[in-house]
Design goal:
Largest sheet: 22 strands, antiparallel, barrel
Number of domains: 2
CATH topology of the largest domain: Maltoporin, Chain A
Number of strands: 46
Radius of gyration: 27 Å
CATH superfamily of the largest domain: TonB-dependent receptor, beta-barrel domain
Number of helices: 7
Shape: globular
Distance between the termini: 58 Å
CATH architecture of the largest domain: Beta Barrel
Structural class: mainly beta
Helix content: under 10%
């Protein structure tokens, strides 16, 4: 099955000439076609000025018959083309909002703009709390759109939902435990996942307490989550993409909220700088579990995190939206509350961008630029000092253009990365390095409608000076709605992906949150080939079903060189991998009831040839299942809305994860600092390891429950929540410490209460 990428890159020059020729043909075809009358505009929320994504915009002719329609994108933008001049009725509708209908005259001008503000329906709002934008079962070739409502549904021990808790409730997403802040998506490691906030990279967005991230419900506008098969505009990772857009501040009113729980306190304030034209929003979050855990959990949890976010947005009369944002997160603590290492990491993201509707009616431009920085480290009982940092300066330009009904997307990205690590191990000499990568990326793809099907072929191009040269990554996505509606949809994707940097973690156990960022070894980029095929079906009103199978072929994966001696090392070997899996999802929602169940199957195998394998096991090649190979996973949730009360139950189950067993212990005497006294010193004890990941941890399962009550006092809303994490007190293993022969468990029965006030 490797014939496609091998042939492609063997004949790279031919492929590039073909791709360039296709681009020229499309551009010439676009220039030779006459413009047609079209209607476009931006739909915003009348209450806070936010763009409304997913609103339906429909034109009806003079006889009241449906003429043409469209839906708004993440910028609230819609476009309806091929309109004949005349009189029409335009209808704008969105769940939970008052439907707008207006008479509209379409002239013979090539383009006409219609902007509208829609208002929430106060009578309907309480009735659609459960059913608004039910999307957990809508999976299109690895892609899922996530809204704040989705985050609300997952039990989170705070006064609001969070992206981290939501992602862990999806099949195909594996977390090692409730600490550490690391997620594995369909076989990919954390360093193989791309996370973006307003178009800028954030390297470690998940907090040390696994329920929380830098993306809480209160700040989220929407997000695109690709578990694989992602589009050509995303490059530089081989596993998954989480593209998060933070919302703008309120353009019309100054508002705020505050919340407190044993896990977290947070404050949010927003308002207009110039009413209707500019706004700001600021947030501060800080963990409390370090102080409250002795009371609520009976044992101190020495972990802490905090985050700050600030965003300013400016709107112009021509529809241009510009914003500047800054984000800072900090995490520190021990994953083992009694012993073990101290971990810490810090993210800083600063940047801004603009979206602009040009005078050309078929052209939409998106630009952003900024800097992203991550520093992280580890130290404690075994390591004296481990630290690493990565800084990225980037600029993106993305263009969306229409040629009749064919959408053409293309863009370019310039970036520079500084990677630095400093390793000082007990058993190794200090190791440090600084690398600088200068890269240029471009992409082009098109959406071609063919009846009830849409093809999205495209290619991403990547160029790095000196190290990797030029590479091309062809991809294609396909959807087919056999009956012309999204009630039934077949989808598929095939794509090639590459990655030039990697994050090396500790091979010894799962209980590590440290990543040493460095370029991939030997100038050989990581490669991944994705195959996805799926079907989604609306079975009845409110009942949605989807199934998706996937296969990922991985080459040139950097893995730490195996050694019988447990030690952190930056010595790397290359491995190949195969990942097979399937996700099945069933979702049902009514006005007062919501339920979801998902099942994920995954099989991951790495193959690596290393010298030490021959010396210890008699075979130069070893095949093994890595530490994140969870074979079966089940996620379920039930939500019932009764008057002012909301009852929620979430349950998770996952089969055991692989770990490397220990064979025994020995002692080491160091001679680099002088001759030791062998009569008085017995040396430093070391752990001798068995074959890689030959053991399995026990099955994990946990049930979380909560009840929430909402009260309205005038314009003030108060939300009170009581809940329990791990309600039946299951003893779930977090990781097994091969040094101390101790098991470290996840959270026990953990009751909590939270209070939130919104002004």
């Amino acid at each position: 099955m490797l014939f496609f990428p091998t042939a492609f890159f063997t004949a790279r020059s031919i492929s590039l000439r073909v791709a360039i020729a296709c681009i020229l043909v499309l551009m010439l075809a676009g220039s030779g076609l006459a413009q047609e009358v079209q209607l476009r505009g931006i739909i915003t929320d009348a209450g806070d000025g936010q763009p409304v994504e997913g609103a339906n915009v429909v034109l009806f002719d003079g006889d009241g018959e449906f003429y043409r329609g469209s839906a708004t994108d993440r910028n609230g933008l819609f476009r309806i083309g091929r309109i004949q001049p005349g009189f029409y009725t335009i209808r704008i509708s969105y769940v939970g909002f008052i439907t707008v209908e207006e008479e509209l005259e379409i002239t013979d001008e090539p383009s006409q703009i219609f902007n509208s503000r829609i208002s929430e329906d106060s009578e309907m709002l309480d009735e659609v709390v459960i059913t608004v934008r039910s999307q957990a079962a809508r999976m299109s070739a690895g892609h899922q759109r996530v809204s704040p409502v989705d985050l609300q549904r997952v039990v989170t021990p705070a006064a609001g939902g969070d992206m981290a808790s939501y992602l862990q409730a999806l099949p195909g997403v594996v977390a090692a435990g409730d600490r550490g802040g690391q997620l594995f998506v369909r076989g990919g490691t954390p360093s193989e996942n791309l996370a973006l906030v307003d178009g800028l990279t954030i390297y470690q967005p998940f907090h040390i307490i696994g329920f929380f991230s830098a993306f809480p419900e209160e700040l989220l506008a929407s997000a695109d989550f690709y578990a694989g098969g992602f589009e050509t505009r995303y490059s530089g990772r081989v596993s998954s993409v989480l593209d998060v857009r933070m919302r703008d501040g309120n353009f019309h009113n100054t508002t705020g909220s505050g919340a407190i729980s044993p896990f977290l306190t947070e404050v949010l304030v927003e308002g207009p700088l110039q009413e209707g034209h500019s706004s700001w929003i600021g947030s501060y979050r800080r963990s409390q579990i370090e102080h409250t855990s002795p009371l609520f959990l009976g044992d101190e949890q020495p972990v802490h995190f905090e985050s700050q976010f600030l965003k300013v947005t400016q709107l112009s009369n021509d529809g241009t939206r510009c914003s500047a944002m800054g984000m800072h997160t900090y995490d520190r603590g021990r994953l083992d509350s009694e012993f073990g290492n101290n971990f810490w990491w810090r993210n800083v993201v600063i940047g801004g961008g603009c979206t602009h509707i040009t005078s050309d009616p078929d052209l939409f431009v998106d630009f952003n630029s900024g800097i992203s920085h991550l520093s992280n480290g580890m130290g404690g009982s075994r390591e004296t000092n481990l630290s690493s940092s990565i800084t990225k300066l980037s600029t993106d330009l993305n263009v969306s253009q229409f040629v009749n009904d064919i959408e053409l997307r293309y863009g370019i990205n310039f970036h520079m990365k500084w990677l630095n690590y400093d390793i000082d191990e007990i058993f190794r000499l200090p190791t440090e390095a600084l690398d600088v990568l200068l890269g240029l990326r471009g992409y082009i793809e098109t959406a071609i409608p063919m009846g009830n099907a849409t093809w999205r072929p495209g290619t991403a191009f990547t160029y790095y000076t000196d190290l990797f040269g030029l590479s091309a990554e062809p991809r294609i996505r396909f959807t087919w709605q056999p009956y012309g509606s999204d009630y039934q949809e077949f989808n598929a994707a095939v794509g090639y992906y590459s990655q030039s940097i990697t994050g090396i973690t500790d091979l010894r156990d799962v209980g590590s949150a440290f990543l040493a960022w460095m370029p991939v070894p030997e100038g050989r980029q990581m490669r991944s080939l994705h195959y996805l095929v799926g079907w989604q079906q609306r079975l009845a009103h409110g009942l949605q079903f989807s199934v998706e199978g996937y296969h990922k072929q991985l080459t040139n994966l950097p893995v730490t060189v195996w050694s019988t001696i447990a030690e952190f090392t930056t010595d790397l070997a290359l491995a190949d991998g195969n990942i097979y899996g399937a996700d099945v999802r069933l979702e049902f929602g009514t006005r007062r009831f919501y339920s979801f169940i998902g099942y994920g199957y995954s099989w991951i195998e790495y193959e690596s040839a290393q010298k030490s394998f021959s010396e210890w096991f008699g075979q130069p090649i070893q095949r093994y299942n890595p530490a994140h190979d969870r074979r079966h996973q089940v996620n379920a949730m039930v939500i019932l809305d009764v008057s002012d009360y909301t009852f929620s139950v979430g349950w998770q189950m996952g089969t055991g994860l692989p770990f490397t067993r220990q064979m025994g212990f020995d002692s080491m005497l160091r001679f680099d600092r002088g001759l030791p006294n062998v009569r008085a010193s017995y040396g430093t004890p070391r752990v001798i390891l068995d074959q890689p990941f030959s053991g399995r941890t026990p099955v994990f399962h946990r049930m979380d429950v909560s009840v929430n009550r909402t009260l309205h006092v005038g314009t003030t809303r108060m939300e009170m929540q009581l809940g329990v994490i791990n309600s039946y007190n299951r003893t779930n293993l977090f990781y097994y410490d091969v040094f101390t022969q101790r098991r470290i468990d996840q959270l026990p029965f953990a009751p909590y209460g939270s209070f939130k006030i919104v002004l």
